[in-house]
Every structure is written in C-alpha cells, then in structure tokens.
Amino acid sequence: MAKVEIYTKAYCPYCSHAIALLKQKSVSFNEIKIDDNPSLRSVMIERSQGAYTVPQIFIGDKHIGGCDDLVALDAKQQLDTLLTTP
Q1: 5: β partners
Q2: Cβ neighbours of residue 25 under 8 Å, at least 6 residues apart?
Q3: Which residues contact 76 (CB under 8 A, 6 or more apart)?
Q4: Which residues make Cβ contacts (< 8 Å) with residue 56, sequence separation at least 6?
Q5: What are 14-73's pLDDT values in tens digits?
Q6: Model confidence over 65-75: pLDDT tens digits?
Q7: Coiled-coil segments, which residues (predicted)?
Q8: How far is Cα 6 from Cα 58, in angstroms, rounded to an integer?
Q9: Most buried among 7, 73, 77, 86, using CB within 10 Å?
Q10: 44-63 per-residue burial string, b: 16 or more CB within 10 A, e: under 16
Q11: Predicted TM-score (pTM) of this structure
C-alpha cells in the first residue's frame, strides 16, 4: 500500500470529503493538520509547488492535488492503482 499524506485544516468540508473517501477505501493515511502547527503550511506549499489551499494530498511521492483531484482520480478508476502501488 502506498504512503498517503493529507494536509488539512479544521472545519474544511473539502478535507472532510477527501478523508471520507480514503476511509471508504480503507486506506491508512497521515493527516497533517496545518492549523495545529502553522509552520507546516510552508512545508505544504513547497511540497505542492505553490498550492496553498487544503487539502493537499500526496500518494507516495506524487502530489495528487486537492479533494476534486482525488475524486476525479477515483471516478476515472485510477485511484485504486495509485493506492496499491508501493
């Protein structure tokens, strides 16, 4: 199973939706709450090459993007392949 990291903030409906999709697929993930530790926001922006909105999702070393990008991958039936690639 690929390593999944998701940068989130509290009370973010897009973050909640992305997390719900990952849980539905029984994927373990590391949630990085940038509102708990604001210095992580700059790490997120650097890793995502300038994206500053949440969530920002990484599967393995690949930057997926936000919630809409994750949902689109699932709709194209490409998400499961990414998740199962170590």
Answers
A1: 30, 58
A2: 79, 80, 83
A3: none
A4: 6, 7, 44, 47, 48, 63, 65, 66
A5: 999 999 999 999 999 999 999 988 899 999 999 999 999 999 999 998 999 999 999 999
A6: 999 999 999 99
A7: none
A8: 6
A9: 7
A10: bbeebeebeebbbbbbeeee
A11: 0.94
Distance CA 59, CA 62 (A): 5
Both tokens of 84, joined, read: 């199962």
13, 64, 2, 75 alpha-carbon torsion, rounded to 10°: 70
Instruction: Name the one residue in this structure whose structure tokens are 């690639």.
Output: 85
Residue with tokens 């993007």: 65
